[in-house]
Amino acid sequence: MRQIAIVGSGPAGYYTAEAAVKKWGDEARIDVFDKLPVPFGLIRTGVAPDHQSIKAVSRRYEKTAIGDTVRFVGNVEVGPDISIEELRELYDAVILATGAPKDRELRIDGADAKNVIGSAAFVGWYNGHPEFAALDPALDGRHAVVIGMGNVALDVARILSKTQAEFEGSDIVAHALDALRASRIETVTILGRRGPHQIMMTPKELGELMHLERASPHVDAADLPPVDDDAILEPGLRKSVTLLRDFAAIPEHLHGEKPVALEFDFFASPKAIESTDGAISAVVVERTTVEAGRAVSTGETYRVPADLLISCIGYQTSPIEGVPFDERAGRFANDEGRILPGLYCVGWAKRGPSGTIGTNRPDGYNVIDVVEQDIGAGARKEGREGFDALAQSRDLNVVTFRDWQKIEEAEIAAARDGAPREKFVDVEAMIAALGK
Ligand code: NAP
Question: What is the pLDDT of residues 172-186, one digit of tens each?
């Protein structure tokens, strides 16, 4: 019997569990740990609430989660509740699928001003992540600035722009819906330090901006390279750039019909943040040109007014004491997923924060192949039973998958009309729903 611990119950965690079941069937026991009492990580607290079709992938993880082979061990945090060393002693393989929950730091002068936040916090806030539920972002000013030209920047800009009716059918949490209803934001400037050919936004997500009820995307045609230059782009990026061209062609009178402007500002590298009474008032931006794909400073600067800044410049993995970490890449130091004997990583914790949810599937299958090469059939550790004894001795309040299903039932029962659920946004409320 192979005893496997997976730390993290997001896409990387559950695809890895799925791969382990496929490979070993009943010859393995797989415990999937999560520090929250609720599973699915990024699917629950990262994927935008108005992208329910993407969130539906959790149904696939449920199939893996139900049964005796795979077990959800919620409300148990590696560090305070159990150490990595203890897990390594108990399980034949410990696989870190902890994702990249921390914002990459915006290292410019003044970035510690009030109302300067990272996307992890803002996305966590509207998705009801307990750590960020109390964020209360400043939506009472007129200007928001979003830094970055990736899909997270698009999620953030879209959420800031939607009407209440457009959130119908989403599971955006009530505190965010209420705050957005009162929002006074009229301009969302999206700053990209490079040009239209270097955006990381994918066409489906970018195209959504065309259909917003009260917001309209603005692109300056002068920022776009000659159309023939698009021929060298890979097809997905070419489609995205074509959409930018469509945005640039929107006639002024149509913009005027919508009160919120989504301004794409290319060749714009943030340099400093100005503040008034400690709160952000503007971003100082340097004009760039792009040479051989790299942003090059021109020395010209200008100011973009800002009452709120959300930096969407990527994520990093949270280090764990005793686990080798690659500081530069912001993820665990690993070779094909191997970190130390018996310790592995997978997903964003292994390769950094890029790719779609589905990219984690082959990653999960690969790491299980690597584990198989290393432990073969010779695995003999205590595993699950040993953990249960330790959990009992420490009085850990472990949340099982059945427990989670009860929490989910309560969330479904509390849903507003048309919404799939109303999430609990703090751990105590989740536990209280279980009465344990
Ligand atoms: P991303 O795609 O890597 O985009 C990060 C953006 O931040 C880039 O435009 C980058 O510009 C910019 N940036 C980085 N450092 C910067 C700095 N110091 N100053 C200014 N700009 C800076 O990351 P992401 O948007 O966080 O997305 C992470 C992953 O999740 C991606 O694979 C994304 O596709 C995926 N995702 C998918 C969806 C979806 O499918 N619906 C939704 C959300 C996220 P440079 O290119 O110049 O470095």
Answer: 999 999 999 999 999
